[in-house]
Amino acid sequence: MGSSMEGNKKIELTMRLSEFEMPPMQDVLIVGKMAPIGAEAARRMVDILSPDQYMIKKTEHPIIEAIVIRKSLLNMMPEDKLIALILEEGEKVTNETMIVRVQLNITILVSKSIEL
């Protein structure tokens, strides 16, 4: 009675290649409280790579230390509402050791009636 255990070993590899961006972040960076790069290091990084384009917002959140956000987004939406929304969605996918890069697209819809 021979037992034949044949196994296969596979490796599945997925690669996503994209152009390197300067700075190496997009619209928002969510910085966890125990992340390898803290809020001050993130501030120095964006100040060197892209001066005056980002704002650092420290938070009172239990796992998120700060949010680094592209200033131009704040021209499209009130800061307090945008930060609250980023925290609400960010806490679902991050933990205190992570730094999460966020691509954020804001579309403004305008509808007007004109009396004729």
In short:
The protein is α+β, with helices and mostly antiparallel strands.
User: Into which percentage range does the β-strand content fall?
Assistant: 15-25%
User: What string gives the helices and strands in order?
Assistant: EHEEHE
Oligomer: single chain
Number of strands: 4
**Spatial sequence of strands, sheet with the most strands:** 2-3-1-4
Sketch the major β-sheet.
4 strands, antiparallel
Shape summary: extended
SSE class: alpha+beta
Describe the structure.
By secondary structure, the chain is of the alpha+beta class. The chain has two helices and four strands, in the order βαββαβ. The chain has helices at residues 39-49, 79-93, and strands at residues 28-32, 54-58, 64-70, 99-102. It has a four-stranded antiparallel β-sheet, with helices on both faces. Strand 2 (54-58) and strand 3 form a beta hairpin. The N and C termini lie far apart (93 Å). 16% of the residues are buried. The model has no long low-confidence stretch (mean pLDDT 86).
